[in-house]
Specification:
By secondary structure, this protein is α/β, with parallel strands linked by helices. The protein has six helices and seven strands. The relative contact order is 0.16.
């Protein structure tokens, strides 16, 4: 990464603080969305956190029956797995049909090689009328490798959800454009080289390295600023997001309806 030795402490500090600036802005919006859904559930509700990882959202579902599923195969230096109810492939969860009132599937679909199969499984385990909150990245570096397969546009996610017989209730950016900028500034602050040889050496390489040395610190500050600005005001009419979040519902087909009929009804109501 090219940091001069006297500043290794700042490199470590940036690594620790990146989540506090660019990433937590989007996570804070997601946490609020999850809390809204959690607050709407009665005490007897069954909830599945699919691809739960460290079960960070378990506290928001303490008033209901919370279960989790994950295959627990990724070694994460930054987080350990929580108490997982079902250690399994989330495309084959060992529970009966129509078990859950709500499913949480956040930042998981990019890590499964068969997203259609996973969404069909979520549909199977949800009760008719049950809902699922799903989020996935449009922009993010490869992570948790080798289990990192996809990035999703809003149209791709909608297509997958409707193909699995879900009805989309709402969709949104997980964070605004400022969160996207905070991501980019934060990663640039971390990855931008600061050694002359990384710029071809010589006088130009030395001057470029000096510029990069100071620019990294400016970018680090900007990542904090834009992360906070995003929490203050979420801009969604320009640029693009880092992640999309959808609220989807498993339709109650007791009236003999079909996915095609559901789509037609939504068009008539718009």
């Amino acid at each position: 990464m090219g940091w001069p030795k006297p500043h290794k402490w700042l490199e470590a500090k940036i690594g620790k603080k990146l989540d506090e600036c660019e990433r937590n802005s989007s996570r804070e919006y997601l946490r609020k969305m999850i809390q809204e859904q959690a607050d709407s559930l009665p005490p007897e509700a069954m909830v599945l956190d699919a691809g739960a990882g460290n079960c960070m959202y378990r506290p928001q579902f303490e008033h209901v029956n919370y279960e989790s599923a994950d295959f627990c195969q990724v070694e994460k230096a930054y987080a350990k797995y929580g108490e997982i109810t079902y250690v399994c492939d989330i495309a084959e969860i060992p529970v009966e049909d129509d078990r859950y009132d709500f499913v949480l599937l956040t930042q998981v679909l990019e890590h499964v090689n068969e997203p259609k199969a996973v969404l069909r499984e979520m549909h199977r385990v949800l009760k008719p009328g049950g809902r699922m909150l799903v989020s996935a990245p449009l922009y993010y570096p490869e992570h948790e490798t080798p289990y990192d397969f996809y990035r999703y546009t809003q149209y791709g996610l909608r297509h997958l959800l409707e193909g699995a017989d879900f009805e989309v209730c709402s969709q949104d950016w997980m964070g605004g454009y400022y969160a996207m900028l905070a991501y980019q500034f934060g990663f640039a602050a971390w990855d931008l080289p600061a050694r002359p040889r990384r710029y071809g050496g010589g006088l130009i390489g030395f001057l470029a390295a000096v510029m990069a040395f100071f620019l990294k610190r400016v970018l680090y500050i900007l990542s904090h600023i834009f992360g906070r600005l995003d929490q203050r005001h979420k801009v969604t009419d320009t640029g693009h997001p880092a992640d999309y979040v959808f609220l989807a519902e498993k339709p109650n087909r007791s009236d003999g309806g079909t996915p095609e009929r559901g789509k037609a009804e939504r068009k008539e109501n718009t």
